[in-house]
Structures are given as structure tokens and as C-alpha cells.
Amino acid sequence: MTVAQSAGVSMRRMLRRPRILCGLALVSGAGALVVWFVGLHTAAGRRLDAQALLSFTGVAPTDLTASIGGVAGLADPAPMLCGAVALVIVALLRRRWLMAAAVPAILLAANATTQVLKPALAESRVVDFGLLHQTFTASWPSGHSTAAMSLALCGVLVAGPRLRPLAALLGAAYAVAVGYSLVALGHHLPSDVFGGYLVAATFTLLGAAALEAAQSREPRRAPWVRPPPQALSAPALALGATTLVAVMGVAILIDRPAPALAALGHTAAVLAAVAIGALGLLLTSGFARVLDR
Q1: Using CA atoms, how far apart are residues 82 and 80, in angstroms rounded to an integer?
Q2: How far is CA 138 from the centre of its chain?
Q3: CA triplet 48, 49, 50: central angle to 5 degrees?
Q4: Contacts for 157 with CB less than 8 Å, ≥ 6 apart
Q5: Rounded to whole angstroms, what are the CA distances from 24 to 15, 111, 211, 278, 287?
Q6: 216, 28 in Cβ contact below 8 A?
Q7: What per-residue confidence (pLDDT) applies to 247?
Q8: Which of 150, 161, 214, 284 is a plausible cystine mate for 200, CB 3.0–4.6 Å?
Q9: Can you say how many angstroms the Cα of residue 215 is from the centroid of all Cα atoms in its chain?
Q10: What is the C-alpha to C-alpha distance for residues 88 and 85, in angstroms, rounded to an integer?
């Protein structure tokens, strides 16, 4: 392939990617609407949501409540601000000036939208815990879930091609851990977490599309440069993640056999955990994949 042909291929990819990102943002936004409708306005969705919450809170060890609360606190405003500053610094060190400006814009837009949607879409949902009832009124989408996933996706955006798979894996672990902790503490229903993830993904995709469109108008020093090889391949990371989860599961089973076996017996909790984990990993790894195309 000649230099001119390489430049043409590069330009076509750069022009096509913003459209792809915008299309995925529409899909993510539509997914959020589906979750909102099913979780808040259908009897089956409300029932599944409540069952998953009861199962989650039922298997969470009471002696670990403080630790679980600490995990949820990783998406509080102070840690979020520190994470945002760190990502901006990384973008500046990489001389990605537009990216450094896009990160705070994405984080602000996603999290501000969640705070607007909470009261605008408020709908009372009552969960019976036996001796008491808990009412969730303005809890969709989850603000902490939005914060965690938006920060995780911005981490994927800022990371270079070599480290992007690792950033996707670590970002998913962070966002999923926050989501698990919110449900285990009874602060949010699973649908709230799903909604927060999808709101974050929608605005990150839109921000990335705007960034790609702006960068395509900048003059380039070279016609096209193939991205460097990734430090860790996606299959290697997937194998490592699976191994880590398996080891942690065995360790928990050995250390706390009774609660672990009891948790496996709660089908709703297992399904909710799998769904939250799968969505979190899908969003971060899928975003990384699109950026590398």
C-alpha cells in the first residue's frame, strides 16, 4: 500500500468513526429507556428488581458492611474529582489537548444528566424486607453508578492503544464493584445501576464522537501510523480476569463456606450479579474495541 493509499484509508476511518460512535450512543440511550420502562413501569420488571435486591442484601455479610460502604464511596464526589484530575493530567502528558478538555465535559454532562433525570423520572417503588418496607422514589438512574462508569470509560478514552485493554478491564472492575456495593447495601435497585451505566456510556460515546470529529480536522504530521502493538492482548486479559475471578471465588468459598454456598442458592442474586458484571465489561471493552478500529 502506498503512502497516498494509507492516508486515504486513515482519513476514511477517521470520518467513519464519529458516525459509529454516535450510532452506539443512540443504542445506549435507547437501552437506558428500555431499562427505565421495564424496571419502573412493568410488574415483571419491578418484581425481578425487588427479588434481586432482597437476594443481594440477604447474602451480604453484615460484618463487611463498612467495607462494602467503602467501595461504594469510591464514586463519591471527592474520589471522582481526583480521578478526573488524574485523567486530565494523563491526557496533557500525552499532548492530547482536546482530549484533556473532553474528559471533564463528558463527566460533567453524564453526571449532571443523571441528577436531572432522578427527579424528572421519579417513581415510587416499594420493596418489602419483611419487618420493614423501603421506598425507592427518585433513585433511577444511580448517580454513583453513572459516576463510576463515566470515569471508567474516560480512563479507556485517555489510555493509549497499548494500555487500552488493561484500562478497560480495570475500569470494568471498578464500575462493577461500585454497582455491586450499591445493591448489596440496599441503596439502589439493579435497574438503577443499569441505568447509570448506560447514561454514562451514552455521553462518553457522544463525547468521543465529538472528539474524533474535531481531531479529524487537525493537520497531521504523518499520513498514517499503525498503532503500536498492545501491551496485553484481549484474550490474555480475558484469561487473566477469569483466573482472578476463579481464585477469588475459591478463596471466598474456603474462608466463608456457609455464606458463599448460601449466595449461590439465591438465583436472583446470581443473575443480577452476572448481568451487572456483563454490562460493565461489555461497555468498557466494547468502547475500547471501537476506539481501536
Answers
A1: 5
A2: 21
A3: 90
A4: 99, 102, 103, 106, 204, 207, 208, 211, 287, 291
A5: 15, 19, 15, 17, 9
A6: no
A7: 60
A8: 150
A9: 25
A10: 5
Is the bond into 61 cis (omega within 30 degrees of 0)?
no
* Stated length of the chain: 293
Which ranges constitute the DSSP H helices of the chain? 3-41, 43-59, 65-72, 77-93, 97-120, 143-158, 164-184, 190-216, 234-255, 257-264, 267-292
How many whole angstroms separate alpha carbon 118 and alpha carbon 145?
13
Task: Name the nearest CA neighbour of 282 among 142, 172, 132.
Answer: 172
Burial of 254 (0-12, 13-18, 19+ CB in 10 A): exposed
| Percent of residues, the chain, with pLDDT higher than 90 | 55
Q: Provide φ and ψ at 125, rounded to 5°.
A: -130, 125
| Angle subtended at Cα 241 by Cα 202 and Cα 184, rounded to the nearest 5 degrees | 65
Give me the phi and psi of 160, to 5 degrees please: -75, 170
d(CA 83, CA 153): 12
Q: Considering the entire predicted model, what is its pTM?
A: 0.85
Domain coordinates of the chain in residue numbers? 3-292
State pLDDT tens for residues 90-134.
999 999 999 999 999 999 999 999 999 999 998 888 887 665 677
DSSP result, 146-178: HHHHHHHHHHHHHS-TTTHHHHHHHHHHHHHHH
At CA 25, angle to CA 193 and CA 27, rounded to 5? Answer: 75
Sequence-distant (≥ 6) Cβ neighbours of residue 47 within 8 angstroms: none
